[in-house]
Design goal:
Radius of gyration of chain B: 16 Å
Number of strands of chain B: 5
Strand order of the largest sheet of chain A: 3-5-1-12-9-10-11
Radius of gyration of chain A: 32 Å
Bound molecules: FE2/S2 (inorganic) cluster
Number of strands of chain A: 35
Largest sheet of chain B: 5 strands, mixed
Helix content of chain A: 25-40%
Distance between the termini of chain B: 33 Å
Shape of chain B: elongated
CATH superfamily of the largest domain in chain B: Beta-grasp domain
Organism (chain A): Lichenibacterium ramalinae
Keywords (chain A): Molybdenum, Oxidoreductase
Number of helices of chain A: 24
Oligomer: heterodimer
CATH architecture of the largest domain in chain B: Roll
CATH topology of the largest domain in chain A: Aldehyde Oxidoreductase, domain 4
Number of helices of chain B: 5
Structural class of chain A: alpha+beta
CATH class of the largest domain in chain B: Alpha Beta
CATH class of the largest domain in chain A: Alpha Beta
CATH topology of the largest domain in chain B: Ubiquitin-like (UB roll)
GO molecular function, one term (chain A): oxidoreductase activity
Structural class of chain B: alpha+beta
Pfam family, one (chain A): COXG
CATH superfamily of the largest domain in chain A: Aldehyde oxidase/xanthine dehydrogenase, molybdopterin binding domain
Helix content of chain B: 25-40%
Protein name (chain A): Xanthine dehydrogenase family protein molybdopterin-binding subunit
């Protein structure tokens, strides 16, 4: 039949999406209207990493005009349950805390009001009483027997512990000539799309049905999780997505708990509820990639040929295990040998919970955590044996004649010629010139290194891979899970125009453009005549659990199924036209807007007329055709089988190949990393739209650059969240992005309808470790963890370096431990009064009230115990706090220790200070003080960089005021007081 | 500016893309909210509400400004331009917009309005910018999708086209 006109590899046509988006006409979730009476939500969140939730006082908030309701976790207990993970554990993963909070940012109450401003006013007035518990932040510490346990019912923080063996790892390790291990602590980061989450939800009590609009990206297996959490059957949860979404990178899977929360809130209040997340909430409370501790050991021979790998992975999923976790740990299960032919593998996978944000999908999903140790290991092997790392990589690559190649752990690699792709990259990418640049730089004493990475990029996830977390016996009991249903619907309307609906839920990738081209080619009409819609409505559109935008499944699966649906419809139309033209369907071609005879171009019908036939003239449609109006196709690849009894896991359908190399220079004085050249070779099968593939590679590369060098979700040892703004969580900007050389090699996938493979995540997997390998080469290091911040690199340079830094530069100091944010300070001031008089003032609540900056009322509970209400500002964050101050180690009138805590909606803090009073020899007193303090909650997250200054202002202000109160300072009064004020207002200690 | 009461609402008037508009706001209402929810001009986006991402950038009296850091009442009497005013007419893209489309300089489009407004404002004053200058301007914005390279390419291309097409750039409708 007429396959003519199919030309899927088309030049980079301009996108149909763009004109609207460029003109401000996008319809993102916050751009859509809401029903009259819709309430706006603001969320009160925990400032504590781990605490009992004692009481929530709603009264003050409810008196505020415009505030309609304050809803807490216990209000929702009956109408919701937790978000079940893929693992049966006694973790009640609710979307809102009930009696305990387990991470900073966890929702504790929802304030509903007439508009967002009033809702936030209300949130400020909700008072929550907590009783702190010790927190555990580090995954290894969480496993220590007396570690704080997050979920008492489980008894420990260990959620899962599975061991796997493939081939004969014991034999391979015992006979190997060499063995070597790397230990990697992979940090936390996130996708941070520019648009945050949004949900609009309502509930119909008569039908017991929810209607939820959310900028959710899938996978729609989560629809079942949301419905279950809302305690309704699937057909009573209508989940819709807006037409446009401002990026996701996996992260918008994590809107699911908020969809539950807002839907349940709408039910309680009996009105529609809208919530749009702000950036501070997003960084603290959306979703993080997992941090992971990996010990990877290899057995290898003298040539660096790896016989066996031993993986010990400790995965940290944060405070709750939420669906689809612990999927990050198993997504790569079939790919644990990367691009290499390694037959013997041992794996131990443990999942642990800690007092941090729960994890979920983030671009790369498990890939960065695997390739970092694997590719660091390949470099280490080369160093250990004195070989060229490129030779070691090349020697271990899966040979071209082995495809389709079954990996030891069960994936079936579809196609590739890794060695040839690598050789082309080395040649076209100019490796020899780069080696020359390294030699030249080193000859000048500069710190320059080259890194390599080979990686396999999996795409189109098997929905059954996550069941590998269960034992084969548990799986057998639950029944097999597998496949990846993709779907497309093509509709012909009464004037014969074509509409395509897919469930791929694009987040900016241009799916509509690609699909219009594919479908238009099949029907032989211009792409502009095909309309594609991608907003999804689970009540009306075709979808399945694999629907959505993740695992780079569009080109491989969704484009393919659209092709399938269009082809089926075209074949029906061919038979309709054949009947009218009195020709055979096989003799027809679809081209130029016509259905015409292959041999006699004069025998034709306009496409639109044929396409409209089933509407207007069903009598003309041959009986066995049925009707040609709407065709919905589903497609799931047979290769995605369920995990077998030996735990072989075909985790993904397609496997692209990436080979990266780069040259970097580390600035000796500042530790800044300069990327001199970066080359990335991709084999992603057939390319459907070169411009979009380039966009995916460039965008992924820059996100990876961020993860490698700038971005980290940082937590203090007590679980305080420290990277709460985009000034703390640093995304790369245009000025940080180096030139990127992109190369392609094409091995079509035999497993997908169009030969395409996914390409969206590869650089997130390959680039962080490629940069790290280059830095390790530059600094001659064995051990190196991300992120490669200037502070860390400067410290490493100092360690590695015998050569003194050039004159004029301060010697490198060790990087501050991330998370140590103790504020320390000391100062002195002179007061005109004698020590005894100052001492008396210090113990007088009225005096304290007048000298503590921002104090509203000081109450004396005992001679040595005071409480106060204090208003403090840190940078832009001003808030009310309750302060509690105790005096101890009293040594009147010479000294005392002050211990204090402050707590409030914006955060909490505590510290101690020692005050000493000495006669200054002229009748006055010299007051000296030292302090140490730590701050948590929102203030720590957003104001970390400002805290030192703020503490100095507050403490300096206290003593300046005390000095004034004591009768002025030893120096002439007015000028000094003015100066103290000016200095205080600029953050400098008087 | 007169002292405004926090308790009452105020009518604020300014021109948006050449059209006189008034909107009722509180004294604390952000310009982003006034434009988006008060006037329904949702092309200006909010990515962070703390001045870092640049999504909310508009031109106020010819200068680029973060609308999320601007109070609506502070825009009284100002001349505001937003992304909705960049086209040459309904369905007709301006030079800068068309260059973005050609170069695939957007994916999700969420950051795009802000970047367009910064570049439009900059190119009006600096018709012959270098790649480095444009990179610095774009460096004031966060885009999570594109990796920036196509945005820089589009900006350079648009600048060249605007120079070639117009003898007196300041007199003509830009971008
Ligand atoms: S929203 Fe204004 S700078 Fe981010
Ligand atoms: S295009 Fe998505 S953030 Fe720039």
């Amino acid at each position: 039949m007429g396959i003519q006109g199919e030309q899927f590899i088309r030049p980079s046509v301009e996108r149909v999406e763009d004109a609207t988006l460029l003109s401000g006409g996008g319809r993102y979730i916050d751009d859509l209207g809401t029903r009259p009476g819709t309430l706006h939500a603001a969320i009160v969140r925990s400032p504590h990493a781990h605490a009992d939730l004692l009481a929530i006082d709603k009264a003050a908030a409810l008196t505020l005009p415009g505030v309609v309701a304050v809803i807490t976790g216990s209000d929702l207990l009956d109408i919701t349950t937790g978000l079940v993970p893929a693992l049966r554990v006694s973790v009640d993963a609710r979307a809102i805390a009930v009696d305990r909070v387990r991470y900073v940012g966890e929702p504790v109450a929802i304030v509903l009001a007439a508009d967002r401003y009033r809702a936030e006013d209300g949130a400020d007035l909700v008072t929550v009483r907590y009783r702190g518990r010790p927190a555990v932040v580090d995954p290894e510490a969480a496993l220590i027997p007396d570690a704080p346990v997050l979920h008492g019912d489980v008894g420990s923080n260990l959620m899962s512990d599975r061991s796997f063996a493939y081939g004969d790892p014991d034999g391979a390790f015992s006979t190997a000539l060499h063995s070597l291990a790397v230990t990697v602590r992979y940090p936390r980061n996130t996708g941070s799309p520019m648009e945050c989450y949004g949900v609009v939800a309502e509930y119909d009590p008569h039908e017991d049905a929810y209607d939820v609009l959310a900028n959710f990206q899938g996978p729609f297996s989560i629809h079942a999780v949301i419905a279950r959490a809302l305690k309704v059957p699937g057909n009573r949860l209508r989940l819709r997505t807006p037409p446009d979404s401002g990026g996701s990178f996996g992260v918008k899977q994590g809107v699911a708990p908020y969809a539950v929360l807002m839907a349940a809130a709408a039910r309680v209040v009996g009105r529609p509820v809208k919530w749009v997340e702000d950036r501070l909430e997003h960084l603290a409370g959306s979703v993080s990639a997992t941090n992971r501790v990996t010990i990877l050991t290899a057995a290898f021979d003298a040539e660096g040929r790896v016989a066996a790998l031993d993986w010990d992975q400790l995965e940290d999923c944060g405070a709750y295990l939420r669906a689809p976790e612990p999927a990050t740990l198993y997504r790569m299960h079939g790919n644990m040998t990367g691009a290499y032919a390694i037959s013997h593998v041992r794996i131990r996978n443990r999942v642990v919970l800690t007092n941090k944000l729960p994890t979920g999908l983030v671009r790369g999903f498990g890939g960065p955590q695997v390739y970092y140790p694997l590719e660091r290991l390949m470099q280490r092997i080369a160093r250990h044996l004195g070989l060229d790392p490129l030779d070691v990589i090349r020697r271990n690559l899966i040979p071209a004649d082995a495809f389709p190649y079954r990996t030891a752990t069960g994936a079936l690699y579809d196609s590739g010629d890794y060695r040839q792709a690598l050789d082309i990259a080395v040649g076209d990418g100019g490796l020899s010139a780069l080696l020359g640049r390294r030699d030249a730089a080193r000859a000048e004493g500069r710190i320059y290194g080259i890194g390599f990475t080979a990686a396999v990029e999996p795409s189109v996830s098997n929905m059954g891979y996550i069941t590998a977390v269960l034992t084969p016996a548990e799986r057998a009991k639950a029944g097999p899970k597998n496949g990846a249903q993709s779907t497309a619907t093509i509709t012909l309307d009464p004037v014969g125009t074509v509409t395509v609906q897919v469930a791929s839920v694009p987040q900016g990738q241009g799916h509509r453009t690609v699909l219009a081209g594919i479908v238009a080619d099949i029907f032989g009409i211009p792409p502009a005549q095909v309309r594609v819609t991608t907003d999804l409505d689970t009540a009306k559109d075709a979808w399945s659990i694999a629907s959505g935008n993740y695992s780079s499944r569009f080109a491989a699966a969704v484009a393919g199924v659209a092709h399938l649906a269009a082809t089926r419809l075209r074949d029906k139309l061919a038979r309709i036209a054949a009947a009218q033209l009195n020709l055979k369907a096989e003799d027809l071609v679809f081209a130029g807007g016509r259905v015409s005879s292959r041999t006699n171009p004069d025998a034709f019908l306009p496409f639109a007329r044929v396409a409209a036939t089933s509407h207007w003239s069903p009598g003309l449609v041959p009986d066995d055709v049925g009707s040609a109006i709407r065709e919905t196709a589903f497609w799931t690849p047979p290769e995605l089988t369920a995990p077998d009894a030996e735990d072989h896991v075909a985790s993904s359908l397609c496997h692209g190949f990436i080979f990266d190399f780069c040259g970097v220079e580390v600035d000796r004085a500042t530790g800044k990393l300069r990327i001199d050249r970066y080359v990335t070779m991709h084999d992603c099968g057939v390319i459907l739209h070169p411009g979009m593939v380039e966009g995916q590679v460039r965008g992924g590369f820059v996100q990876a650059l961020g993860a490698a060098v700038y971005e980290e979700l940082v937590y203090g040892e007590d679980g305080a969240f420290l990277s709460g703004t985009l000034a703390d969580y640093l995304l790369p900007t245009a000025t940080e992005v180096p030139d990127l050389r992109i190369l392609h090699f094409t091995s079509p996938s035999p497993f997908t309808p169009l030969g395409a493979k996914g390409v969206g995540e590869g650089n997130c997997m390959s680039t962080p470790v490629c940069l790290a390998n280059a830095v390790a080469d530059a600094l001659d290091l064995d051990t190196l963890d991300l992120p490669l911040t200037p502070a860390k690199l400067r410290a490493l340079v100092a360690e590695a370096d015998e050569v003194p830094p050039p004159a004029g530069h301060r010697p490198a100091t060790p990087a501050a431990k991330p998370g140590d944010r103790t504020l320390r300070g000391a100062g002195a001031t002179v007061v005109a009064a004698a020590p005894e008089a100052v001492w008396a003032l210090l113990l007088d609540p009225d005096v304290l009230a007048s000298v503590i900056p921002g104090a509203h009322g000081v109450k004396k509970l005992s001679d040595t115990h005071f409480t106060a209400d204090v208003t403090l500002g840190v940078g832009p964050v001003k808030g009310r706090y309750a302060a509690d101050i105790t005096l101890s180690d009293l040594d009147p009138p010479r000294g005392a220790t002050l211990t204090g805590t402050v707590s409030g909606g914006l955060g909490d803090g505590g510290g101690t200070g020692r005050v000493t009073l000495e006669p200054d020899g002229s009748g006055g007193t010299r007051i000296g003080y030292t302090y140490e303090a730590a701050v948590g909650g929102k203030v720590a997250a957003v104001g970390g960089r400002l805290l030192d200054g703020a503490a100095r202002v507050v403490i300096g202000g206290f003593f300046a005021a005390l000095a004034r109160r004591a009768g002025g300072t030893g120096q002439p009064g007015l000028m000094r007081r003015l100066l103290a004020r000016v200095l205080a207002s600029t953050g400098v200690r008087p | 500016m007169p002292k405004l009461s926090a308790a009452s609402r105020h009518s604020v008037s300014f021109t948006v893309n050449g059209v006189a508009r008034s909107v009722e706001v509180e004294s604390r209402t952000l310009l982003t909210d006034a434009l988006r929810h008060g006037l329904g001009m949702t092309g200006t986006h909010v990515g962070c509400e703390h001045g870092v991402c640049g999504s909310c950038t508009v031109a106020i009296d010819g200068t680029m400004a973060r609308a999320c850091l601007t109070l609506a009442v502070a825009a009284e009497g100002c001349d505001i331009r937003t992304v909705e005013g960049l086209g040459l007419g309904p369905g007709r893209l301006g030079v800068l917009q068309a260059a973005f489309k050609r170069h695939h300089a957007l994916q999700c489009g969420f950051c795009t309005a802000g970047i367009l407004m910064s570049l439009d404002t900059y190119l009006r004053r600096h018709p012959d910018p270098s790649r480095e200058e444009l990179t610095l301007v774009i460096g004031g914005h966060l885009c999570r999708c594109t990796g920036y390279a196509p945005i820089v390419a589009a900006a350079l291309d648009a600048a060249a086209e605007l120079r070639g097409a117009q003898k007196h750039p300041e007199e003509t409708a830009h971008a």
